[in-house]
Amino acid sequence: MPPVLSPLLQSDFNERQAHFSPDGKYIAYTSDKSGSAAIYVETFPLSGIEWRISSGVGAQPRWGSNGRELFYIGPGGKMMVVDVKLRPSFQAGVPKPLFDTRVLTFTDFRNHYVVTSDGQRFLINSITQERSTTPIDIVKNWTALLKQ
Questions:
Q1: Average confidence (pLDDT) over 66-75
Q2: What's phi and psi for 21, nearest 5 deg?
Q3: pLDDT at 18
Q4: What residues make up the domain containing 77?
Q5: Considering its fold, how many domains does the chain have in total?
Q6: Mean pLDDT along residues 8-19
């Protein structure tokens, strides 16, 4: 018998990119409930208690393996970090920029990066080169040119 799947968060808003804390007691996710994409943390099992983490827009939250940091992509593609405490109760510090990224998309349904267990290195799915602005020449009726 296949497993029964049920929604974790149900609201009138778009929630995506959920990631459980290392201790399994919190979920970080992206939601547009504020009018634009932002990072939130909620207790698990769900209790209705939530904290907004990003001060501006944010997407793709990812917990550090030690549970003391939460990473996300902020405005302009900046990798952001927030110091957090999980015990005795959840507390979040002020978001700080770490470095610029060139992530492929901001509000996709999946994360485009992972962070190493020590929180010092990132593997990021990013754009490797700028798009070409070279014009394209279109030749109509090119077969007529072959006859000349």
A1: 91
A2: -65, 160
A3: 87
A4: 16-129
A5: 1
A6: 79
